[in-house]
Fold:
Amino acid sequence: MTFITWNIDSLGAALTGTSQRAALSRNVLCILADIAPDAIALQETKLPPGGLSEKQLGILNELFPEYTIVVSCSAEPARKSYAGTMFLYKSCLCPMAVSFPQIGAPGTMDYEGRLITLEFEHFFLVGVYTPNAGESLARLSDRQVWDIKFADYLACLDKEKYVVAGGDFNVAHREIDLAHPKSNRGSAGFTDEEREGFSNLLARGFTDTFRYLHGDVTGVYSWWTQLSKTSKINNSGWRIDYWLVSDRIADKVKRSEIIDTGPRQDHAPVLLEIEI
Structure:
């Protein structure tokens, strides 16, 4: 099976926007449609509480005509049109259940549409958008609690069936997962606390599929800041988007790689191919 995860940074803008960036985002959606994976996990959709508009749904149905769409939107008491996740999965797959878990995260994190889980006969497919520690690390302590709660959640699933979890985890785990570790040490996404949280998640029985296949390869990233026009040209990136799987099916992973998005900065999709 083939799965793709992508932080799209505003689905609405990608579908109906008129800017150059919107055009680049639509091009990525076309790339994903051509690949035709079994499921696509999207993050940071930024949809309002009502979800997709009729126009947006029509465009998605044209791009992905044989897919079922499920959305989880940020809603009160959280900010509206913020965060949010989505799954598009081939309708023929027919999951046994679709859930939008609340994991006991602090503040409004459980209301920000950050988790969707599809249950199949032999495995759970999880899409996640991990909270950012925020400017001046204002949300770091809450993020640490999230990391514990999310690890507990995946570990509970793993006791029942295999787990395949993909998304924007908002952390560069190791120094080789970003271009400039020294100058970024202590920044959101590369604090000791966040890195430890990810290490603890893996220690609960999960494998970073990219590192499993590619070892200590360097210079491969999934995110390049938009604050610098040359971040992607110079490959000053971070690898913060992942596919994780239960340790006991790591040997079933065939591919785990970043999809080339050309000049578009910000996040790139990550593809996983696994025999499951």
Notes: The longest helix spans residues 140-160. The two ends are 7 Å apart (CA to CA). Helices lie at 11-16, 20-35, 54-63, 140-160, 181-184, 192-203, 209-214.
